Amino acid sequence: MGALRMALPFVQKILPMLDGNFGTAVSQMMTPHPQAPPPPANLVPLEDGLAELQTQQRDLRDQIVEQNTSLKRVEDQLEMVREATDRNTLEQQELLEDLKGVGNKINLFVLLALGLLAVSIFLNVVMYLHLQRVLP
Question: Using an 8 Å Cβ cutoff, are 55 and 48 in contact?
Fold first, then answer.
């Protein structure tokens, strides 16, 4: 019986087609039929849910603002660390250049000392040989 009630509007629209009034049937299918107004809905739960969603949205917005502030602080700290690292790198490069300069000076001093030592040994050998000839 329920299926017959559901099929009744379709049958009413199709029957004029069988009669030969095809245009009337199509126009009836295209025109909306007035429906009974829906019963009034209880909107209190929806309003309560909407208020709760608004509260949660405000809380989330506050959390986002707080996180953005924290991220900004962390970004500033990272910037300071990067600047300090850059300064230390430059200082280390300067110290390395100074160390190379000192190393070059020490190498020159050592070469000079080795040269003097070689000259001293040569003179000692020459003097020893001379003394051996002079003294019997």
Answer: no
Q: pLDDT digit string (tens) for 113-122?
A: 999 999 999 9
Interior CA angle at 119 toward 116 and 123, to 5°?
140
Residue 24 makes CB contacts below 8 A (sequence gap 6+) with 16
The string of DSSP letters for 97-122 reads HHHHHHHHHHHHHHHHHHHHHHHHHH
Cα separation, 116 vs 109, whole angstroms: 10
Q: Tokens for 51?
A: 């208020």
Contact predicate 28/13, CB 8 Å: yes
pTM higher than 0.70, yes or no? no
What radius of gyration do the chain's Cα atoms show? 52
Could you tell me the two tokens for 103? 């190393």
**Beta carbons within 8 Å of 97's beta carbon, 6+ residues apart:** none
**CA 101, 104, 109: angle at the middle one, nearest 5?**
125
Q: Which residues of 85-99 are buried (b: 16+ CB within 10 A; e: fewer)?
A: eeeeeeeeeeeeeee
